[in-house]
Write a sequence for this structure.
């Protein structure tokens, strides 16, 4: 997954499923309501999508990130947030 975030909006790109998810963090801080299909937000969504695709292209050009060695506290914090199993 990759994501781009502004003060109010967050767009997530689920790469494996080629799925886009847009959240209004001001109204939905728990990120429960996907707004990607909302026609009134198309311009905003595509703007964020363009920024994220640019970044993804740069990341592919520079290769994968270096492996990070996390201590047990950091790993547990990520696990509690659902990022690590």
């Amino acid at each position: 997954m990759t994501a781009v975030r502004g003060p109010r909006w967050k767009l997530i790109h689920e790469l494996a499923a080629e799925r886009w998810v847009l959240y209004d963090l001001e109204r939905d801080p728990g990120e429960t309501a996907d707004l990607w299909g909302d026609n009134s937000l198309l311009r905003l969504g595509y703007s964020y999508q363009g920024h994220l695709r640019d970044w993804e292209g740069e990341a592919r050009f520079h290769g994968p990130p270096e492996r990070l060695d996390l201590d047990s506290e950091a790993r547990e914090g990520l696990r509690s947030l659902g990022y690590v199993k």
